[in-house]
C-alpha cells in the first residue's frame, strides 16, 4: 500500500484511539481504586480529570490550524499521547497517574477536531458526508472496544491496557496523516455565521446530555430494575457502540444523498423515541435494541452537525468548539438528568427525549431561515 493511502487510512485510525483511551477508564474504575488505594468514588475522578481539560481545550484547539500545518499538529499531539500513555501504564502513584490522564486528555483535544479538518481538506465535497460517517464509525468502534480490551487486560494488570494506546499512537507518529498547509488567512478572517453555529452547539449539547451521557443512567436503571450484574450491563451498553459502528458510514452516505437536515431529523426522531421507551420496557434485550437505535441516532446527529458546521462560514475555526459541547453535555447528565430519573424513571428518560426534539426543531427553524 502506498504511503499516501496509508496516511488517509490513519485519519480513521485516529478517530478510534481517542474514544478508546477515554472509555477504558470507566471500565476499570474498581481496579484503579484497588491499585491506588482509593474509594470507587475517588477513582471515578479519573474520568472527570480526562473530560474537563479535554472539552475545555477543544473550545479553541482548532484555531491552531491557521498558524501551523494540521498534519504536524496531529503528529505532535500523538507523540504527546504516547508519553501520557506510558506515564499511565507505569504510574506508581495516584498523582502521577492523574498527570498522565491529563496529558492524554489535552493531546486528544488537538486530534479529534483537527483530524476532521484534514478529512474535509482531502475529501471531495460530494463525498464529505460519507468520509465523516466512516470517521464517526471508528469512534464508535473505539467506544465499543475499550471496555472489552480493558477488561481482558485487568485479568493480569489493568494498566497493561495502555500498551494498546501506545501501539496506536506510535503508528500515528511514524506513519502520519495527509500533509496540508495551514489554512489560508482569508479563511481565518472569514466572518462567522453565529446563528447557525449556536444552533449546532445547542444540538451537540443536547446529544451529549440526552443520549451519550444517558449511558450512566441506563446502567443504574438496569441494575435497579433487573438486578443485572456489571458484565451483563456492559453488553447492553456495548450494543450502542456496535450498532453505531456498523451504521455510521451509511448515515454519512445518506447525508451526501439526501442532505444533512433530512438525515438529522430522521436520526433525532428515532433516537428520541428509543430513549423515551426505555423505562416502559420489561425485557433487557429490547432495551439493548432501543439503546442501539438511540446511539446510532446520536452518531447520525453528530455526523450531520459536523458536516453542516464545516460548511458554515467560519465553521472550520469553530469546529472544535462545537464538538466540545458533546462532552460538556455528557458531564451535565449526572447533574441535571439523573436527579429527575431518581424522582420518576419515566420522566428521567422523557426529558432527554424532549431536549432532542427541541434541538431538532431549532435545526429546522435555522434551515428554513437560511433557505429564505
TrEMBL record:
Keywords: Membrane, Transmembrane, Transmembrane helix, Transport. The chain crosses the membrane at residues 42-64, 76-94, 100-119, 131-155, 161-180, 192-218, 230-248, 260-279, 285-310, 322-340, 346-362. Residues 7-371 form the Major facilitator superfamily (MFS) profile domain. It is a multi-pass membrane protein. It is found in: Cell inner membrane. InterPro entries: MFS, MFS_dom, MFS_trans_sf. Gene3D superfamilies: MFS general substrate transporter like domains. It comes from the Bacteria. PANTHER family: MAJOR FACILITATOR SUPERFAMILY, VACUOLAR BASIC AMINO ACID TRANSPORTER 4. This is MFS transporter.
Amino acid at each position: 500500500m502506498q504511503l499516501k493511502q496509508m496516511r488517509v487510512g490513519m485519519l480513521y485510525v485516529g478517530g478510534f484511539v481517542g474514544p478508546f483511551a477515554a472509555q477504558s477508564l470507566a471500565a476499570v474504575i474498581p481496579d484503579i481504586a484497588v491499585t491506588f488505594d482509593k474509594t470507587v468514588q475517588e477513582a471515578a475522578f479519573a474520568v472527570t480529570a480526562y473530560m474537563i481539560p479535554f472539552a475545555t481545550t477543544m473550545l479553541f484547539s482548532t484555531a491552531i490550524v491557521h498558524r501551523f500545518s494540521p498534519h504536524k499538529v496531529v503528529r505532535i499531539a500523538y507523540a504527546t499521547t504516547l508519553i501520557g500513555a506510558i506515564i499511565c501504564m507505569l504510574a506508581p502513584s495516584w498523582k502521577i497517574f492523574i498527570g498522565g490522564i491529563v496529558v492524554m486528555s489535552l493531546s486528544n483535544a488537538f486530534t479529534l477536531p483537527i483530524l476532521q479538518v484534514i478529512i474535509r481538506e482531502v475529501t471531495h465535497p460530494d463525498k464529505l458526508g460519507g468520509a465523516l460517517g466512516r470517521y464517526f464509525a471508528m469512534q464508535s468502534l473505539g467506544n465499543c472496544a475499550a471496555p472489552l480490551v480493558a477488561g481482558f487486560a485487568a485479568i493480569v494488570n489493568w494498566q497493561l491496557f495502555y500498551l494498546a494506546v501506545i501501539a496506536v499512537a506510535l503508528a500515528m507518529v511514524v506513519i502520519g496523516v495527509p500533509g496540508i498547509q495551514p489554512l489560508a488567512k482569508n479563511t481565518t478572517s472569514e466572518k462567522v455565521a453565529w446563528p447557525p453555529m449556536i444552533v449546532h452547539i445547542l444540538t451537540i449539547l443536547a446529544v451529549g446530555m440526552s443520549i451519550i451521557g444517558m449511558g450512566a443512567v441506563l446502567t443504574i436503571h438496569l441494575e435497579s430494575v433487573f438486578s443485572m450484574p456489571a458484565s451483563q450491563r456492559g453488553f447492553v451498553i456495548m450494543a450502542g457502540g456496535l450498532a453505531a459502528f456498523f451504521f455510521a458510514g451509511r448515515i454519512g452516505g445518506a447525508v451526501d444523498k439526501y442532505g444533512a437536515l433530512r438525515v438529522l431529523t430522521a436520526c433525532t426522531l428515532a433516537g428520541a423515541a428509543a430513549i423515551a421507551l426505555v423505562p416502559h420496557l420489561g425485557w433487557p434485550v429490547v432495551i439493548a435494541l432501543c439503546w442501539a437505535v438511540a446511539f446510532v441516532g446520536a452518531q447520525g446527529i453528530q455526523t450531520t452537525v459536523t458536516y453542516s458546521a464545516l460548511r458554515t462560514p467560519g465553521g472550520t475555526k469553530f469546529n472544535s468548539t462545537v464538538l466540545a459541547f458533546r462532552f460538556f453535555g455528557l458531564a451535565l447528565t449526572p447533574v441535571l438528568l439523573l436527579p429527575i430519573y431518581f424522582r420518576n424513571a419515566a420522566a428521567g428518560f422523557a426529558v432527554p427525549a424532549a431536549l432532542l426534539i427541541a434541538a431538532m426543531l431549532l435545526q429546522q427553524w435555522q434551515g428554513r431561515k437560511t433557505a429564505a
